[in-house]
């Protein structure tokens, strides 16, 4: 932070009744050079300009107030409670499908049908009957 910005910030925070000390006493200089330096200091082109880059110096307090977060809760609640439209179940599914990536790791696992244990059409009695007929065992 530059010295000029620091001075401006301190000037904003100092109480209004406090007076400044004279320039000569404040700096602790005496002699012919002190007067020339004071004249050079007074010749700033404009109070809101920086001498070096000719940029407007921004106040930190003003920037803070500009960037201060605003609470939009009430407006958002009014907007949300205004309409009671419920979307179909297909719409959110479609949105989710569009936002998913194309890689296999981004895809949800496919639902596989559960395999039922294989059962035979024949019963135990049918097998015994077949044995008797084919092998001749009583």
From TrEMBL:
Biased composition range(s): Low complexity: 21-37
Compartments, record wording: Nucleus, Nucleolus
Encoding gene per record: Rps19bp1
GO molecular function, one term: enzyme binding
Keywords carried by this UniProt record: Nucleus
Pfam short name (any one): AROS
Region spans: Disordered: 1-53, 90-125
Amino acid composition bias (Basic and acidic residues), ranges on this chain: 44-53, 104-117
Family: Belongs to the AROS family.
Record lineage: Eukaryota, Metazoa, Chordata, Craniata, Vertebrata
InterPro entries, A to Z: AROS
Protein name: Active regulator of SIRT1
Gene Ontology CC: one annotated term: nucleolus
Range of residues in the leader sequence: none
């Amino acid at each position: 932070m530059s010295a000029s910005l620091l001075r401006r910030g301190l000037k904003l925070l100092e109480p209004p009744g406090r007076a400044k000390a004279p320039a000569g006493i404040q700096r602790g200089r005496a002699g012919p050079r002190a007067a020339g330096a004071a004249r050079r200091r007074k010749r700033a082109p404009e109070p809101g300009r920086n001498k070096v880059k000719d940029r407007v110096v921004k106040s930190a307090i003003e920037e803070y107030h500009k960037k201060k977060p605003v609470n939009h809760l009430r407006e958002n609640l009014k907007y949300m409670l205004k309409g009671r439209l419920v979307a179909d179940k297909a719409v959110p599914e479609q949105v989710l499908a569009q936002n998913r990536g194309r890689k296999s790791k981004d895809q949800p696992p496919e639902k596989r049908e559960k395999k039922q244990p294989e059962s035979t059409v024949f019963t135990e009695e049918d097998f015994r009957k077949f044995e008797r007929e084919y092998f001749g065992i009583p």
